[in-house]
Amino acid sequence: MTTKERLHKLVDELSEAEADDALRYVASRREDPLIRRLESAPLEDEEISAEEEAAAAEGRADVAAGRVISHEEMLRKYG
Question: How many CB atoms lie within 10 A of CB 63?
């Protein structure tokens, strides 16, 4: 079964509300100029510097150690 055949089968099983949501989602992805540009953007091929890698490693270590705060807490503290 092809991808389109599987998609047709799935669409046939959707309720009208689900079909409406799916249609809006697909249409927005096809029409949104930002999404089109992001999808056609070249892959990142720039080397990561030692400083950037060290900063990323520090961030991963903070997450692993639980040294993080929630988005809600950030908003409470800093607006």
Answer: 10
For residue 22, give every residue at least 6 positions away whose Cβ sits within 8 Å of its Cβ, in sequence order, or none: 11, 14
In sequence order, what are the residues at sequence separation of 6 or more whose Cβ sits closer than 8 angstroms to the Cβ of residue 62?
68
User: Does the predicted TM-score (pTM) go above 0.70?
Assistant: no
DSSP for 11-37, written as a single string: HHHS-HHHHHHHHHHHHHHHH-HHHHH
22 in Cβ contact with 14 (< 8 Å): yes
What angle do the packed helices 33-40 and 16-31 form, to 10 degrees?
60
Q: What tens digit of pLDDT does each residue of 20-55 get? A: 999 999 988 888 899 889 888 998 889 999 999 999
End-to-end CA distance of the chain: 52
- CA-CA distance, 79 to 70, in Å (whole number)? 13
